Amino acid sequence: MRRSICSSEPAIIFAGETGTWKFFYTTSTTLPKGAKLRFDLLSMGRDCDWEIPQTDVKEKKNLIWGILPNGKAIEAKAASEDEELINTIFDFTLPSEVKIGETFIICLGSTEPDKESQSKKGNRCQTTVQRKRAFHLYIDPKGKGDFKEPEIFLIDVKGNVLHTIRVIAPSLVARNRRFDVLVRFEDRFANPTGNAPEGTLVELSYEHLRDNLTWKLFVPETGFINLPNLYFNEPGIYKIQLHNLHNQMRFISPPIKCLADTEKSIFWGLFHGESVRFDSTDNIELLLRYMRDDRNLQFFSTSCFESAEETSNEAWKLISNQIAEFNEEGRFAAFTGFQWYGDEPGEGLREIIYLKENKPILRRKDSKSNTLKKIYRSHSTKDFFSIPSFSMAKGFATDFSDYDPEFERVVEIYNAWGSSECTVKEGNPRPIAVEEDEGIKEAIEGSVRAALNGGLRFGFVAGGLDDRGIFEGLYETQVQYSTGLTAVVGIEHTREGILQALQARSCYATTGERIVLGFAIAGGGMGSELSTKLKPGLVYNRHITGYICGTAPIKEIAIIRNGSPFHIFTPKNQSTFDFAFDDPEMLQNCVLDGREDKPSFAYYYIRVIQEDEHIAWSSPIWIDFPDMNQQAPASVKKLRKAK
I need a labelling partner for 201 at 20 to 30 A (CA). Which of 20, 258, 351, 537 fits? Predict the structure, then answer.
């Protein structure tokens, strides 16, 4: 049986390239006059998608039109007459018969013949790399809207010209401990690319390398190179440098902190976030590949909303299966999670992360899971952990009245729609704010600092960009910031290792940059709960230490004590900073009242702001003071007297 032939010209296009693209359809059956051909770009009209053409032939820019076998051009019409919708489907009605073996051509671009005009006035292809990118053509011989299975055109979209070189390396290593480095060669859209001038060499080097040894790297066709078994001989802060010898451009990696001895590493990822490129419900496999390979995250959780309209049972099953498939020890810790928003005032938004696979999604419409209290009561902490999110969003605020210290070990202090750390008046550098008058504003009852002052205890994580559920439509009304990142400081790169670190609140949040941060009080790290019973010297002095390895010069480092800036460092033109600071104020003079039967306490955390306005928040450290009237032990009295 003879089949129709579909071909494209060109068959290979570079991401983001502008030009004129032609799709040739050679029919295997006669198409009579009046037959309708429907062409679907399969584009969503976003900035990263294939550009949507227009149909006005008077405009020679970004036009879609058809060419009959006799060479005559015909107009296309948008399949939808709704002008408010993005029209990605176009119809052609044949004015004459197209016989068997004849070719009908669909053109996207400019009608002007010279290539220079086409590169300026043509149609822009998508900015993401994709092998066998499909376009659908539906045929209706009778012209009555009865379309059958589509004919398919395919185009390979490859990486554009080399623009950036990126290094993916661990943020925290031990002296003489070997690690791998991945070098990614990227175009201006962050796609991997081997499209570089012939003979391009890239020189890789870093400080403190023995004998000033350097590597010279070719740009591979794959767009990336893995360099195994690197190590540092001495503790310090390292930044790998890449020098493109062809155009003399230099690229610097995020900082790598080398300690004399440590078992811990920093794992970067997201528990809450979506991609502009790929929707988790429609393209979960592509999303996971993007997060793992392009964004180089080491852990990730899905975060679809629980409603059946947003996430059907079939979609949830597919998501769960893909998460199980992608979870890989030592490479990518994948979690199944969803967002739950309560009907009760103050319940707010929660990101619920399952600890194991093949778990059901908890629907708010189900009587067994329509409140947080019911959900927590019917599950154990071995089932999931829960993250309060977007807590200062007015109308969706979390008042923390249902706070559960066993399930809610961390809180989302930041996502791309703003920070819930505190109010604008209290110095919030990235508040939840509106572009004009309408939209979501800040709600003080959801302040993370206020919750901490009230005795709640949680570490800090950051979320990404979201446009689903309660976030839908925020592009038009809200101030949008950069996508956040969560740093988990743990021992094992596994699900269990990530969860153990979160249970200990050994984590911190950033606004997207991989800022390396350390913070401790009397040897207790981020998330620690110290007590004057075990360390009575804390009554008289708190020795605070820390380090920051920034990706840009540091503007300020604020030590926050009990919700207020207590001490601020302002390094000058430094991207790295180590500090040691004593708080000698008597503890009874600066404690807060504990919740219910809990002891009085104080808490500290640090907030780092870089010159480029990127921010990092350490998780807090708490100091409990069970008896403010206790007498200092004799050993402490003797030590104070000696001083």
Answer: 258
